[in-house]
Model the fold of this input.
Amino acid sequence: MLKRSLLKKIFLILSSLFILFILYLFPAKENTHIKENEDIIPETSIYLIDSHNYVSRVNVAINHKDLEAKIKEIINYLTIGSPNSGYIKEGFSPIIPKNTKLLSVQIDDNLVKVNFSKEFLNISPELEEKMLSSIIYSLTSLDNIDKISIYIEDSLLIAMPHSKISLSPTLDRSFGINKIYDLTKIKGSTKTTVYYLSRYKDYYYYIPVTMVNNSDKDKIEIIIEELTSKAVYQTNLISYLNDAKKISYEITDEYMIIKLNSQLYHDLNESNLIESVIYSINYSIKENYNIKSVMYMMDEIVIKNYNI
Done:
């Protein structure tokens, strides 16, 4: 009887040790979650055509970390009928003509040279400028890429395919996007790019519009006036700011201060739009100024501070 009791105790001890050994081999579930979060695919902003024919800022998943591989993946997203085009959000579409091949990519400091097959020239006349804007803005959204050069089967593209308007050998964001002209004279024109909110179903996104005019105002003043204008150019361009007098600003070499009237701030906060509207201002500032951060204040108190 004593022997049987002793054997039973030994069995229980061995069983407990075995269970502890198994638990040691298989870590707790939360450790698995940490590993899963490390594998999340980052997103990059590219510029696609929306349902109203605007070149629009949309986030997509980019699988590669190598810069050249990222460029190839972005061009894949921008090309009609490509494998990546099937992953684009509903309401948006690529613009580079179907069957266009990216023959080569060459990176030289902050300049990238992209070499396309001749199918690139099959773009329609009404979309040729939008296509160039889409490529320029998408590729220069990548870190350390400021300029691009476009080649067609090893020949530099020096003019638009249809209008034959001359192109610079190197293109950057000064090319503009979704341009609107309001010129009173040819000389002395300036470009100011303003990011408007837009919406497709429940998805909010941003549409940059380059204003080409003869204004001598500070660009931030133009941005605020445009974002608070009651005469928005198209109904799908949304501005939730309704009074330019409720916003003031200060500019230094490294940062900008935006002062919001308390009523404007609380109205936006109550409608859960404060972040979206602030990002609209931030993107507009980043497009037009070479500064490090934007600070938002209300009643001399800092409420938001963003690096841009």
